[in-house]
């Protein structure tokens, strides 16, 4: 039997940071070192001021405070951390390829391969190598190939242990996971490695929730779970348009269908479109895998989830323009929210970016208020699309210091993220300082539209039929 006493995690991002912090917190006898090529990120994780950690997650700062420099370390010395570890988690980014074959669809595995080569170069003792990143099915094969052909005789056992945490609830998801999935080889070495990792998680996760499978099932389950979740959002969003046209209310429909225990009530919130770093990337990856195996119908089926999501973001943007008398040119639109969901500072693939891009092309001026997102990030997100020169983005979009300033003299407010605080603003004060008619487009269905219309707002809620 193997006992894991020293863990190295490569990649100090949204997954590596919280995941390893929780392992260190729950397993005081294990030394955990998180390493990254990005020195600034490591410096931020080591910042004495816990409000400046690179990842904002409720409850995370407290765990970092309890574990950092006790048995949790953040470092740029990747080689030393690899050399010391019995288990190495690879938690680096696996973005969609932006070049060459599979461009725009396949996962870019160059960071993963770099990790494997570095491990092979440095390792002097046997290692368990854990795939924590989300990877195409059969990546373990490639990893093993690299490790075994460039290594110096050490034995590497590869496990797949995908992460199912959602941002905004990462700490809770890690402490009380629905399941922990560990895939490994059938061999004795494989079984021993699986058991060693089960022993780590079973310090706080009930054994019944720790699922062990073969390595390919584990890899494919991660892509499948994200595809299913995204499909639910696209399904309810497709119904939202039907609701708007027929007088049905999407929240009532969601409740009615969700009470069927076979369907379940979660993940049925209509929205302006799903965002986040995972859903689109992982479905594109699934589509690519299906296509490369010649499974075109399978590929088309899953691709539709993304096609519909793009449509939903465009539809929301067009609704704003149409309602504002078919032009937003020169008009100020206030955005409440830029993050892809509440309780996170992450903006990757946020619907807000695409809606802003659409409205900017129609010459609107946008002021954003988000409790956790900086102006620099907003400009970065817009420039990444390459729709217009950076100066035009700076001219078109600015950050309001507070929600009241952001909404001042706006023709319309668009709610893009479901932050709780938006509901409790002094909406009378906001109304008094807006252009009239004062329009509100609630892309998340969170506002009290009855109260707002009594103030005088003209409200449009996604998935509800009429202007209230
Ligand atoms: P991230 O971009 O936040 O972090 C990845 C980090 O890896 C970066 O800091 C980068 O500098 C570092 N890195 C890249 N190559 C490196 C190398 N060779 N050596 C050292 N460091 C290196 O990404 P993330 O959101 O944490 O996602 C990581 C993986 O986890 C992805 O495969 C993703 O699909 C998966 N995942 C993400 C989530 C999520 O909610 N974000 C949830 C589940 C799974
Ligand atoms: C997702 C998966 O949930 C998680 O298991 C996986 O590990 C990583 O990808 P994440 O992207 O962090 O997590 O957040 P999630 O809560 O899934 O939300 C994704 C997007 O869908 C957000 O933009 C969210 O606002 C949207 N969404 C979610 C809806 O529009 N409606 C819903 O009912 C649920």
Automatic annotation (TrEMBL):
<dbReference type="InterPro" id="IPR001732">
    <property type="entry name" value="UDP-Glc/GDP-Man_DH_N"/>
</dbReference>
<dbReference type="InterPro" id="IPR028356">
    <property type="entry name" value="UDPglc_DH_euk"/>
</dbReference>
<comment type="function">
    <text>Catalyzes the conversion of UDP-glucose into UDP-glucuronate, one of the precursors of teichuronic acid.</text>
</comment>
<feature type="binding site">
    <location>
        <position position="167"/>
    </location>
    <ligand>
        <name>NAD(+)</name>
    </ligand>
</feature>
<feature type="binding site">
    <location>
        <begin position="92"/>
        <end position="96"/>
    </location>
    <ligand>
        <name>NAD(+)</name>
    </ligand>
</feature>
<feature type="binding site">
    <location>
        <position position="41"/>
    </location>
    <ligand>
        <name>NAD(+)</name>
    </ligand>
</feature>
<feature type="binding site">
    <location>
        <position position="36"/>
    </location>
    <ligand>
        <name>NAD(+)</name>
    </ligand>
</feature>
<feature type="binding site">
    <location>
        <begin position="278"/>
        <end position="281"/>
    </location>
    <ligand>
        <name>NAD(+)</name>
    </ligand>
</feature>
<keyword id="KW-0560">Oxidoreductase</keyword>
<dbReference type="Pfam" id="PF03720">
    <property type="entry name" value="UDPG_MGDP_dh_C"/>
</dbReference>
<dbReference type="InterPro" id="IPR036220">
    <property type="entry name" value="UDP-Glc/GDP-Man_DH_C_sf"/>
</dbReference>
<dbReference type="GO" id="GO:0006024">
    <property type="term" value="P:glycosaminoglycan biosynthetic process"/>
</dbReference>
<dbReference type="GO" id="GO:0003979">
    <property type="term" value="F:UDP-glucose 6-dehydrogenase activity"/>
</dbReference>
<feature type="binding site">
    <location>
        <begin position="133"/>
        <end position="134"/>
    </location>
    <ligand>
        <name>NAD(+)</name>
    </ligand>
</feature>
<dbReference type="InterPro" id="IPR017476">
    <property type="entry name" value="UDP-Glc/GDP-Man"/>
</dbReference>
<feature type="domain" description="UDP-glucose/GDP-mannose dehydrogenase C-terminal">
    <location>
        <begin position="334"/>
        <end position="449"/>
    </location>
</feature>
<dbReference type="InterPro" id="IPR014026">
    <property type="entry name" value="UDP-Glc/GDP-Man_DH_dimer"/>
</dbReference>
<feature type="binding site">
    <location>
        <position position="444"/>
    </location>
    <ligand>
        <name>substrate</name>
    </ligand>
</feature>
<comment type="pathway">
    <text>Nucleotide-sugar biosynthesis; UDP-alpha-D-glucuronate biosynthesis; UDP-alpha-D-glucuronate from UDP-alpha-D-glucose: step 1/1.</text>
</comment>
<feature type="binding site">
    <location>
        <begin position="340"/>
        <end position="341"/>
    </location>
    <ligand>
        <name>substrate</name>
    </ligand>
</feature>
<protein>
    <recommendedName>
        <fullName>UDP-glucose 6-dehydrogenase</fullName>
        <ecNumber>1.1.1.22</ecNumber>
    </recommendedName>
</protein>
<keyword id="KW-0520">NAD</keyword>
<comment type="similarity">
    <text>Belongs to the UDP-glucose/GDP-mannose dehydrogenase family.</text>
</comment>
<feature type="binding site">
    <location>
        <position position="262"/>
    </location>
    <ligand>
        <name>substrate</name>
    </ligand>
</feature>
<dbReference type="GO" id="GO:0006065">
    <property type="term" value="P:UDP-glucuronate biosynthetic process"/>
</dbReference>
<feature type="binding site">
    <location>
        <begin position="269"/>
        <end position="275"/>
    </location>
    <ligand>
        <name>substrate</name>
    </ligand>
</feature>
<dbReference type="GO" id="GO:0051287">
    <property type="term" value="F:NAD binding"/>
</dbReference>
<feature type="binding site">
    <location>
        <begin position="222"/>
        <end position="226"/>
    </location>
    <ligand>
        <name>substrate</name>
    </ligand>
</feature>
<dbReference type="Pfam" id="PF03721">
    <property type="entry name" value="UDPG_MGDP_dh_N"/>
</dbReference>
<dbReference type="InterPro" id="IPR036291">
    <property type="entry name" value="NAD(P)-bd_dom_sf"/>
</dbReference>
<feature type="binding site">
    <location>
        <position position="348"/>
    </location>
    <ligand>
        <name>NAD(+)</name>
    </ligand>
</feature>
<dbReference type="Pfam" id="PF00984">
    <property type="entry name" value="UDPG_MGDP_dh"/>
</dbReference>
<dbReference type="InterPro" id="IPR008927">
    <property type="entry name" value="6-PGluconate_DH-like_C_sf"/>
</dbReference>
<feature type="binding site">
    <location>
        <begin position="11"/>
        <end position="16"/>
    </location>
    <ligand>
        <name>NAD(+)</name>
    </ligand>
</feature>
<dbReference type="InterPro" id="IPR014027">
    <property type="entry name" value="UDP-Glc/GDP-Man_DH_C"/>
</dbReference>
<feature type="binding site">
    <location>
        <begin position="163"/>
        <end position="167"/>
    </location>
    <ligand>
        <name>substrate</name>
    </ligand>
</feature>
<feature type="active site" description="Nucleophile">
    <location>
        <position position="278"/>
    </location>
</feature>
